[in-house]
Amino acid sequence: MASSGELQARIDQLRHRLRSWEERQQNESAGESIEDRLLEIRRRIEERQSESSAARRQRDARIDDAERVLEDSGAASPWPSEVLGRRRRRVLEGLNDRLCLLSRIAERQKEFGPAPPEQDRIHRHALRLAEMAGRALRGAEPETLETVLHDAEAIDQQLRQTCSELLEWSETELARQRQVEQIEAFHSAVVAGENPSVEPLRNLVTSIINDVEECQTAMPRFVPSKSTDRMVAEHSVNVARVVAFLAWNDSLWQPHRESIVMAALLQDVGMRRVPTEWLLQEGTLSSPQRVEIDRHPLVAAAFLAKLEGIDEEVVRAVLGHHERCDGTGYPHGKRAAELTQPALLLAVADDFVGRCALRPYRPRRTVRQAIAEVLAEAEAGRLDVAWTRKLLNLSLYPVGTLVELSNGAIAEVVATQEASEDPALAVKPVVRLRIDRSGKPVHLPRYWNLAVRGECRIVRELTPLEASEVLAAA
């Protein structure tokens, strides 16, 4: 799968090629009525319908032969208008297919909630390019049609690849939603007193680990939900992804990832006994409410101890995922020496994911803010320092983040650095310039590795409103 930087570079090239067209098309299309367009479309449909299939095949074969001869000889076309007309119809049909596919992808995305900014941006740009190319092709004059066709065919080919990448993203999101549904169903069965088979759960664990290894990232994905069952399942899958990533970066614990990821998926099954209104409550919880919520690791461990196929290591990790190294956690107030490594890892991942999620009683943290707060917790002695430092490999500025640089330019993060050994690299990603220091949009791709360009550094992350304005301008 192409990287976000490569996809964006392709989009930029297409936009650059069409920029000169757009102005002309706006002027030309101003005098064209909707009725004229409808009549032309109807005429073309009737023309195609009146042509028999055999005649179309014979005609297409004749034109294909002519095109091959022309390409070999360089001679002028004996049927220029027929050849170009067929090519125009073919490209317009292709562009229409791309538009239909982009619409289907957008409809599917609505089922998942807001699209990630990176995916949404590329989708909008691809949609705009397909529409612009179609307008340019339909409005091209006979003397410029061949040139316009050449560019439109190149654009259609690029859009075909972009649509394929967007569809792959959509399939990945669909697979993630199925993971959430699967763990939600497993939680429900456990709470209902059933003894569900853990084999599907093992397959889910393998799927998450493979996904993290393939993508080499584990950034949580959050979808607002008013269903606490869904919220718990979403949180569990996000924690499992972070755990898989952190353990993958630790050679000592790589062989134990399956049990740790399974513990992450099951750690909050006890929360299903907590009333929905408590979890959605904006004010401070009462003492009885707090006591009941603090019991959820005990409830989860009791459920899991009755299931066949659940290891003791998993139960102990679930029981200790809210304990703290200094003894201030719950339910037993244990210290670091009394806790297993999986429990210490779960505590870090659970805390981090919880801070990244929107809660009724506090706003969502950015990844950078969440990592900084978790690091502060570790420095204060409450979380394991070694596991916490591995969070830096997620990057303080994830791919797709828009940032302001010290020279006044605005850039987008396109790649991150390995930062567990050198934390300073967490703030020195590879970026692509979006707005230069003079405030002008940068259309042609320009990339800076901030780990190499020591004179330039990130000053701050742009707010969502600022980011949307930059993307609109660029």
UniProtKB/TrEMBL annotation:
Instruction: Drop me one GO molecular function for this one.
Output: cyclic-guanylate-specific phosphodiesterase activity
Q: What is its EC number?
A: 3.1.4.52
- The keyword Nucleotide-binding is annotated on this UniProt entry: no
What the entry lists under Gene3D superfamilies is as follows: Hypothetical protein af1432
Q: Which superkingdom does the taxonomy of this entry point to?
A: Bacteria
Which keywords does this chain's UniProt record carry?
A: Hydrolase
Q: Which Pfam families match?
A: HD_5 (PF13487)
Residue ranges occupied by any HD-GYP domain in the UniProt entry: 210-407
Work out whether the entry's keyword set contains Transcription: no
Q: Under what name is this protein listed?
A: Cyclic di-GMP phosphodiesterase response regulator RpfG
Instruction: Give the species.
Output: Kolteria novifilia
Q: Which gene encodes it?
A: rpfG_5
